[in-house]
Every structure is written in structure tokens, then in C-alpha cells.
Design goal:
mainly alpha; glycoprotein; transmembrane; transmembrane helix; globular
């Protein structure tokens, strides 16, 4: 019924089903089953976390890791202590029924109820299609706060057995957080590497490849839980580490099996968890205290809102993409509680915590409120606030390549600036991965680059074999090269090519190979050092050529006036004095006519200034001979350019103007120096002109 599921989330409907089933079982006189903590933590929770960790969107997760950690660690600690402290005050003021609950019990209750639940967040956020940033912030917080919850839960549970708590116990409790979180990650990384290494040798037994992924992941979870480490962080680390290497080794069918089996397994676990929540609500022993339950619900909301506002104000000082007030509202409103809190409450011992039934009643109330009220109203609120939704279409290969190019560019900018940001360390990690890790964990040719050509040859060979077996050439796809066609059957191609119909999985594989191969950046071979540079034999010749071209352009610009502006006729002395009197500034003393250059032009197009050949220019005064009166009267002498002999190179073959004296003359003309200023009383036009 789509109209119902659009309004009510699936998790709410499953809890209602559980309530109905529990009521029916109780109505016929049987005792309904209760969700036991061992069943939940050992069998129902791991598939959901493995599915989330194996298919974790790694890029947005790593880019926002600092924000996620602040929300997960600082936010959960704030919620636990704020809620525990206020509930202790409520218990002291709440009357005779609550006075016996001490501070440690309230802090333990605060640590159980403060953590955001990954199962509830996944169930609700997958349906509303919120944008990737908000989804990864809330979901990443729900995954990583497991370490804080585990530490606080075991810490307060142990402290409840102590007669006296010393400062050393508190310090050791603080240090145990790092042991639990980092220890869980380390266990997951070890099992992930083992799984990747094992998948290298499964090419001849493809059937058991998916089994190794599930086996090693579950072993990582059990090993972490065995030593009271964070099993959720171990599962996430194992999934993230093993995925790129395992997918390179296993077959395509094994990859499809892993994908759909994980999705099915996590979906079944999620369904059972919410149904069991409903059944356990009917079957469990409850102790209702209005003051305690309402105070818990109110302070949970207040702590979440205050924590998000304060932490976001601090985080936005360091973020480039700021979290807007709308984003902060969705993050605060998306802090859903779920079955993890219920199972931790169910684990409490009656001997040390006689108020366990009241705790469980308050926990179930908070779970129902967050899942039903917040889960049902978050979709209309997202539409009302016009929060950005998730992009449904895939990014094109062009966008992905440009994203990788910008990553590489930012890495180079960080290197130049001397700032070692996350782009720098990401690049270092990628190089180490490509140079060492891939060779150990990926089998055969797949560890080497490029994959694109190998994939093309593989497809070409497969289609060629199919062509030979079928004995025809009518359906040759465009991927087969002309060389292979000639080798198989030298016939002409039909007019209309039949393109192969690609499946979605094959298309995804081709996209992946194109994405990883089309953007290839040049690797730096060694650092620049001017003392260790090897001399290039052609470098000097190229430099000379560039210098000659540059000087030629400068001379060409200077000589354009001689070619385009016609010379004035020599006026009579009377006309000269009249011109000087009308505009004396326009007539400056002219240089000696002996310094006028000779310009040789190409007769191909005498009108165009581009056809001037400046390589053979020779001034009259620099040849060592006195100028003849005929040349003095001519001014500019035009000579026809001699055609160059075939096979000569104007770069490396010295021309007529390449003698040292001519080069000195060229430098002279390019920079003639300061012009002498006329002395006072000296006429503007020298005598004799």
C-alpha cells in the first residue's frame, strides 16, 4: 500500500505488527518471546552494520570525518552526562519512589539512552532521500558513537560494583575509550587485510568467494566483542579495508552475490529487530513513573538540540561548507533511538539495578516517540524547509574525472604552500597503496596499470571466440577492432552495426575502469635541483632561436613605421621655418643619416609588414666602409631576399646575419640607449638638410 508507506515509515509499521503479534500471543495465554540481548548483538546487529560498512560512501565519509567524530564523541558524552546529571536531580526532587536511585545509575541510564541508533537512522533516512552530507553526518555519528556507548556502559556498570571510586579509576576509564575505539578499528583492519589476501587465491573456486567476506567480517566482530572492544567499529573497518581488494579479485557473479545477500540479510535483521521491539513491549515487565518518563523524554530532546547548536557553532569556524540552520535542525531532529538502547537496558542486572524495569519503560517510550513522532514528521519537515534532496542520477564519467583532477590540483597547491592537509595525506596513502599494498593483495595483472587496455583485449578476445564459434559475421559489435576482423574472416562490415546490449553490471564495470584510467596524472620523478640537472644539447640552440625571434618581433614593430608611413619631401627653408613655427614640438632633431638601416624585404608581398626579413639587415654605418653619396641619397635600400637552399634549417644553420658583429648591431638596434637632448640655441633641423 504505497499511500500508507509514504506517510508512515516502514520501521513504525513493523513495530505496530510486533505489537499486534505480541497481543495475539498474550491473548491466547502464551508468553510472548522477548528480544534477548545475546540474540540481538550476536545475530541481528552484525548484518546491518556489515552492509553499512561494506557499502559505506567513503569519499563523503572521509571528507566529513572530523565533523562526524565531534558529533559522535563530544556530542554523545555531552548527552550522557547532561541527561544523567539532570535525571539525578529529578530523582532527588521526585519523591519517595525515586530517591533511592543514585548518581551512577542515572549516568548509566544517560549513557544507554544518549546514543543515536544506526538501525533506526538507516530505516528512516533511506526513505526520505535526504542529501548526502546530512545523511553521512547523522549515519556516521550513529556508527562511531558505539565506542563511546560501550565504554560508558561498561565503565558505569563496573563502578556500580566498587565500594569507592578513585581518581585513578576515572583516568583509566578515560584511557579505555581510546583502547576500545582504536582496538576495534585495528581488529577490523587485520581481518580486512586477511580477507583481501585470501581472495587472491580463490580464482579456481569461485563458489566460496562470498563466504570469505561474511566469515572474516563476522570473525572481526566476534573477536572485538570477545575483548570488550567496539564490534561495530571493527565491522566497519573490515568492510572498508577489504572491499577494494576483494572486488578486484573476485568474479562478477560473486560480487553480485555479496551485494544482494548483504542487502537481504540486513533487511531481514532490521525487520526482526522492529517486530521484536513491538513484541517485547507487550511481553516485558513495566514500571511506569510519570515524572521519570516525561523528564527523560524532555531532557533527551533538550540535550540533543543544545549539543547540536553548540557543536555546530564550533565546527562552522573550521568548515568551508558551513552547516546552515536547516541542516542543524535536521541533524538534531534525526537523532533517533532504537533497539541498541533497548538491548543494553535489557542487559542490566537486577542485583545492582533494581530500577531496571523503570529504565526499560522509559527507554521504550523514548524509542517509540523518536521512531513514530520524529520519524513520521521528518519527511514533511524536509519538504517544508526545502532541504536539498539526494541526487538520483549518477554522476557522469566527465564529472568524476574532473573531481579527481581537482583533488590532484589541490594536492599540488598544498605541496607548494607547504600545508599538509588531508589532500596531501590522501595522495601519500594512494601512492603507498598503489606501490606496495595492491601488489600483495591483488592477484595477477589486475594490480598493474592500465586496466583499460587489458579489459578491451579481454572483450575483443571473447567476442572473437564467439564469432568463430557461431561461424558468422553478421552481428559484430563495434568493440571488435578491424585487425581482429581481418584475421577471423576478411569481409566488409555491414552498413548497420549491431551494438551489444550491455547489462547494468557490465556498464558499471566499464564506468569504473574508465573512471580510474582516463584521469592519469604525471608522477613526479624526482625533486628539482639546479645542481643535478642534465645539460640538454639542444637547449642552447632553442634558446638562440627564441632570442632571435623575440628580437625580430621587436625590430619588426620598430620598422613598421618605415614601411607604412611615406617619407616627407624635402621642403624649402621658408616652408621648414613655417612648419616649425606652427608646431615646434613635432619637429625634433633627427639622427644622422649614416645610422639608417638597410631593410631587406620579401618580394612575395611587399605591402605586408609581416614579409620583412630582419635576419639580413645591415646598417650602412656598421660595415666598416664610409657610405657612398648614392646610398646617402637613397636613404633605405631594398634588396631581394635570396631563397634558402633546400634542406637547411633556419634554427640550427647560421644565417648571413648571425656573425658576431651583426648580433652586436641587433642588440644595438633593439636598445639604442638614451637620445641626446638638444642644447639651447641649437636649431631643430641641422644645417645642410
Amino acid at each position: 500500500i504505497p499511500s500508507v508507506s509514504n506517510i508512515v515509515p516502514e520501521s513504525c509499521l513493523l513495530i505496530v505488527v510486533g505489537l499486534l503479534v505480541g497481543g495475539l500471543i498474550k491473548g491466547v495465554g502464551e508468553k510472548p518471546p522477548i528480544l534477548k540481548s545475546d540474540i540481538f548483538f550476536l545475530f541481528l546487529l552484525p548484518p546491518i552494520i556489515l552492509d553499512a560498512g561494506y557499502f559505506l560512501p567513503l569519499r563523503p565519509f572521509t571528507e566529513n570525518l572530523g565533523t562526524i567524530l565531534i558529533f559522535a564523541v563530544v556530542g554523545t558524552l555531552w548527552n550522557a552526562f547532561f541527561l544523567g546529571g539532570l535525571m539525578y536531580a529529578v530523582c532527588q526532587l521526585g519523591g519517595p519512589g525515586l530517591n533511592h536511585i543514585g548518581l551512577l545509575a542515572n549516568l548509566l541510564f544517560g549513557s544507554i539512552i544518549s546514543a543515536v541508533d544506526p538501525v533506526a537512522v538507516l530505516a528512516v533516512f533511506e526513505e526520505i532521500h535526504i542529501n548526502e552530507l546530512l545523511h553521512i553526518l547523522v549515519f556516521g555519528e550513529s556508527l562511531l558513537n558505539d565506542a563511546v556507548t560501550v565504554v560508558l556502559y561498561h565503565l558505569f556498570e563496573e563502578f556500580a560494583n566498587f565500594e569507592q571510586i578513585t581518581i585513578l579509576d576515572i583516568i583509566l576509564g578515560f584511557l579505555s575509550f581510546f583502547v576500545v575505539s582504536l582496538g576495534g578499528v585495528l581488529v577490523g583492519v587485520i581481518y580486512g587485510v586477511i580477507a583481501a589476501f585470501t581472495s587472491r587465491f580463490t580464482s579456481h573456486i569461485r563458489v566460496i568467494e562470498p563466504l570469505f567476506v561474511f566469515l572474516y567480517s563476522y570473525m572481526a566482530y566476534l573477536s572485538a566483542e570477545l575483548f570488550h572492544l567496539s564490534g561495530i567499529m571493527a565491522l566497519i573497518a573490515a568492510g572498508v579495508v577489504m572491499r577494494p581488494y576483494v572486488e578486484a579479485n573476485i568474479s562478477h557473479k560473486s560480487h553480485t552475490t555479496i551485494k544482494y545477500f548483504l542487502k537481504m540479510w540486513s533487511s531481514v535483521s532490521e525487520t526482526l529487530i522492529f517486530i521484536f521491539l513491538g513484541v517485547s513491549t507487550v511481553a516485558g515487565h513495566h514500571y511506569w513513573n510519570w515524572t521519570f518518563v516525561i523528564s527523560t523524554l524532555f531532557f533527551c530532546l533538550i540535550a540533543r538540540v543544545l549539543g547540536v547548536l553548540v557543536l555546530t557553532w564550533f565546527i562552522n569556524k573550521f568548515r568551508i561548507v558551513k552547516l546552515t540552520p536547516k541542516d542543524q535542525f535536521i541533524i538534531a531532529y534525526g537523532g533517533l533511538r532504537g533497539a541498541i538502547a533497548f538491548s543494553l537496558g535489557y542487559l542490566l542486572d537486577y542485583e545492582h539495578f533494581s530500577m531496571r524495569d523503570m529504565f526499560l519503560t522509559a527507554i521504550i517510550t523514548v524509542i517509540f516517540f523518536t521512531v513514530f513522532v520524529q520519524g513520521m514528521t521528518i519527511r514533511p519537515l524536509v519538504d517544508l524547509l526545502a532541504v536539498k534532496k539526494k541526487q538520483e542520477t549518477k554522476r557522469s564519467i566527465n564529472e568524476e574525472i574532473h573531481t579527481q583532477f581537482l583533488d590532484h590540483l589541490l594536492t599540488g597547491i598544498e605541496d607548494i604552500c607547504g600545508h599538509y592537509g588531508h589532500h596531501h595525506w590522501k595522495d601519500k596513502l594512494n601512492r603507498f597503496n598503489k606501490k606496495y599494498v595492491k601488489k600483495c593483495l591483488i592477484a595477477g595483472e589486475r594490480s598493474k596499470e592500465p586496466q583499460l587496455i587489458a579489459f578491451y583485449h579481454k572483450m575483443e578476445m571473447k567476442q572473437a571466440i564467439e564469432l568463430v564459434e557461431s561461424g558468422g559475421i553478421g552481428k559484430i559489435p563495434s568493440a571488435v577492432s578491424t585487425v581482429s576482423i581481418q584475421n577471423i574472416n576478411p569481409q566488409t562490415l555491414p552498413l548497420e552495426r549491431v551494438l551489444p546490449a550491455l547489462s547494468k553490471d557490465k556498464e558499471e564495470e566499464i564506468r569504473k575502469i574508465l573512471r580510474t584510467n582516463l584521469q592519469k596524472t604525471r608522477q613526479r620523478l624526482r625533486s628539482y635541483n639546479r645542481h643535478t640537472l642534465v645539460a640538454d644539447p639542444y637547449e642552447e640552440a632553442w634558446n638562440q632561436m627564441l632570442l632571435r625571434r623575440q628580437k625580430a618581433r621587436q625590430l619588426e614593430q620598430k620598422m613598421n613605421n618605415y614601411l607604412t608611413v611615406p617619407a616627407h619631401r624635402v621642403d624649402s627653408p621658408t616652408m621648414s621655418r613655417a612648419r616649425i613655427g606652427s608646431d615646434p614640438l613635432a619637429y625634433e632633431p633627427k639622427e644622422d643619416s649614416e645610422n639608417l638601416p638597410i631593410i631587406t624585404i620579401d618580394p612575395a608581398s611587399p605591402q605586408s609588414p609581416e614579409s620583412v626579413d630582419l635576419m639580413s639587415e645591415e646598417p650602412k654605418g656598421c660595415s666598416g666602409l664610409p657610405p657612398s653619396p648614392e646610398e646617402d641619397e637613397e636613404g633605405l635600400v631594398m634588396r631581394v631576399k635570396e631563397p634558402s637552399s633546400p634542406g637547411t634549417d633556419d634554427v640550427f644553420t647560421p644565417g648571413t646575419g648571425d656573425s658576431p658583429s651583426n648580433q652586436r648591431m641587433l642588440r644595438c638596434l633593439s636598445d639604442p640607449g638614451p637620445r641626446p637632448e638638444p642644447e639651447e640655441g641649437e636649431p631643430f633641423i641641422p644645417k645642410g638638410q
